[in-house]
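Example for tutorial group B:
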């Protein structure tokens, strides 16, 4: 779930397509030349240990074994988002357990993003 929250563009990217075509990892956009997708001439991030943004591997894993939510977990997360959006959860032990786990992950990702932002701000101050 961390990948979905931290890199949604990567989470939803089709791995087979990524193996064939080049994506700009900063913008997550498919690279095009004269309106046509640019074919890969270098290995995809999952295959390239020297990739500048994802050294060693892609956060999604590999095309053969991508790190994505199972169907059951995706449904659970969707249910949590719907309940969270309206502020109403069913009175159910399993729903409470799942909500606690999901909230912990969401909070952890938010903290990670905040620390990353603070780090970037500090780097800017020391460089400027």
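The residue assignment follows.
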């Amino acid at each position: 779930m961390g990948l979905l929250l931290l890199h949604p563009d990567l989470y939803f990217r089709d791995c087979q397509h990524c193996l064939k075509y080049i994506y700009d990892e900063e913008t997550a956009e498919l690279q095009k030349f004269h309106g046509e997708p640019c074919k890969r001439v270098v290995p995809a991030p999952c295959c390239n240990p020297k990739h500048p943004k994802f050294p060693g591997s892609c956060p999604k894993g590999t095309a053969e074994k991508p790190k994505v939510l199972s169907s059951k977990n995706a449904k659970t997360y969707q249910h949590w988002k719907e309940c969270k959006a309206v502020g109403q959860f069913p009175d159910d032990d399993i729903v409470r357990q799942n909500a606690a786990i999901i909230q912990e992950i969401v909070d952890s990702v938010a903290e990670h993003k905040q620390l990353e932002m603070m780090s970037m701000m500090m780097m800017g101050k020391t460089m400027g």
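The first helix runs from residue 2 to 6. Compare this with the pattern of hydrophobic and polar residues in the output above.
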